[in-house]
Amino acid sequence: MFTVQKATFDESTTARLIELSRIWADENITFGLRANTNEDLKEPCFTAVSEGEIIGYAFGHYYEREHPNSVIKKGSRCFELDELYVLPRFRSEGVGAALFRAIEKEARQNADFMTLTTATKDWRRILSFYSDGMEMVFHDAYLVKALEE
Ligand SMILES: CC(C)(COP(=O)(O)OP(=O)(O)OC[C@H]1O[C@@H](n2cnc3c(N)ncnc32)[C@H](O)[C@@H]1OP(=O)(O)O)[C@@H](O)C(=O)NCCC(=O)NCCS
Questions:
Q1: Which residues pair with 59 in a beta bridge?
Q2: Kind and range of the H or E element at 61?
Q3: Which residue has its alpha carbon closest to ligand 1 atom 40?
Q4: 148 CA to middle of ligand 1, Å?
Q5: Predicted local distance difference test score (pLDDT) of residue 149
Q6: Distance, CA 13 to ligand 1 centroid (Å)?
Q7: pLDDT one-digit tens code per residue, 8-18
């Protein structure tokens, strides 16, 4: 059982969010990820809480689109989902979806588009989560091939 709530960055919440980001970085499942500091945390932020402990979080920020693309016009109001994380032992139980839905509902009040980039190594599963589960539309991808022998 868990509940999802909007977070305020008090001392204990901030410390726990930073701790979770450290656990995430140590999992080594996301390219280029490092643990957060206070300055990295953004609002709005939602937390999933189980037995009084934060077990997952989602946060992001609003921005105005400067560079248009084929879907989003210049000047559109957007919400970037910066981070979505659930502790490994609580995964695949709907916590991530609940966090996504909560922050989506909030973003809908202020923005016309929700955007995100992902560097999750298990890209097939994360694309399935966002596109099949959360109704996000795939836009583009950055691919790399090392050419050194
Ligand atoms: C992505 C994540 C937030 C989903 O949370 P969750 O509570 O497991 O989500 P739900 O239970 O609502 O949905 C489960 C789906 O999430 C995806 N998922 C679960 N674990 C995953 C992982 N390690 N990597 C990528 N996708 C994962 C799968 O699509 C899964 O469906 P499946 O169980 O049928 O394969 C969570 O897996 C996580 O924290 N992953 C590591 C951090 C991460 O990659 N965050 C996304 C950054 S863009």
A1: 45, 83
A2: strand 53-64
A3: 85
A4: 32
A5: 79
A6: 22
A7: 999 999 999 99
The ranges assigned to domains in the chain are 3-133
- Measure the N-to-C terminal CA separation of the chain; round to a whole number of Å: 50
Give the span between the Cα atoms of 7 and 25, in whole angstroms. Answer: 22
* CATH architecture for segment(s) 3-133: 3-Layer(aba) Sandwich (3.40)
- Atom of ligand 1 minimally distant from the CA of 86: 39
* Torsion from C-alpha of 124, 125, 127, 131, nearest 10 degrees: 130
List, edge to edge, every strand of the sheet that includes 113-115.
Answer: 3-6, 45-50, 53-64, 77-86, 113-115
CA distance 110 to 29: 32
Q: Give pLDDT tens digits for 59-105.
A: 999 999 999 999 999 999 999 999 999 999 999 999 999 999 999 99
| Residue 33 CB contacts under 8 Å (≥ 6 apart), including other chains | 24, 25, 119
